[in-house]
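Section 5.1 Outputs to date
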Amino acid sequence: MRIDNVRAVLAGYRKTDPDMERSFALVRVEADDGTVGWGEASTNWGHSYPTVFRAVVDDVCSRHLVGRDPRAIRDRVADLRVALDGYLGWEGLSSQTIGAVEMALWDLLGKHLGAPVYRLLGGDAYPIPLYGTGTTMFDQTPQWHARYFDQCLALGFKGVKVRLGRTVAEDAEVVETVRDHIGPDRLMGVDSYWFHDPDTAIELVRRIAPYGIHFFEEPVPQYQIEGLERLQRNSPVRVAVGERVYSPRMYAELARRDAARVFEPDAALAGGILACLEIADIAARSSVEVITHVGGPTAVGLAANLHWSTAARVRLCEYDIDPHQPMITDIGHNPGLALTDLAGGVITAPSGPGLGVDVDEEALARHPYREGDTYVELFPEHESGRTAVVS
């Protein structure tokens, strides 16, 4: 068995809440027997640089993969690290791309052996509890944000995550309103998407801690480790990181310095399925909770995260509750993955061979990539790590 073809496949659709183009970056790996494996790279909520991803896959990765055995996954990952890490860098886009290819190789191997990936990893499927992630519609009222969670709560989701990014006082009001709406027993996390410096993050977390906050995600940029350390030392709520932590090495450093106490690995971000299992081991040794990060990918990225989460026995997983999810519902027959399938508020890894995901290439082509604004353009302050307004 040899790899016959490797190419990037880009997709997208127009998103609402907020109104923007949402782009996706997939990789398609075909073996010489005609078997096709799929993988996905993410920058959260799809991919912000899909054409850059395409150039790396088509111009660099393909020539290091074609003609080689796709079943030797660790060898293929090592080949790509030699090709990419030295000069493109060993975090960010390199990790995303390698993770996408690795997913596709697991998909191929599972199809070749007739087994789901979680079985190949030594796992057994079980229902994973979910929390629903909120939206960045910051102009909407606190009541609007509270009601945004009604559908997922009616389905039995264990909890929710509130998006922060206003003044400290306004964010505290939203948190209070959501807590009153969902009741005292539901889990609630918050996510400020790099909006703060450590001082304003400390001010905010002390205001909202009485509302029973499970974690405070991305309060400051993850590369500012000293700031994260200071925040965690002074925070009554556990700091969570993962959306922009790209490797087991980075997670190990955060654990060593006690800079975060919740890890949120994502196979589409952090180097793939094996990397996420390594991160889960690092967390276990440091008594750090693992919550799977699933930032609104296609069915491919969602399934990949469910497979490693199953093998790692993760007890909580993120889910994008935006009701319009064509990359889950419209690109193939994938029962059990759409929001309306999740009665009981749990999700189970697909049981079919490989990732267990059906990708209808004609249906996928009906959602072409179109250039448009990303979150960086819509919410530039959320990438800055600068002081939020305190009032």
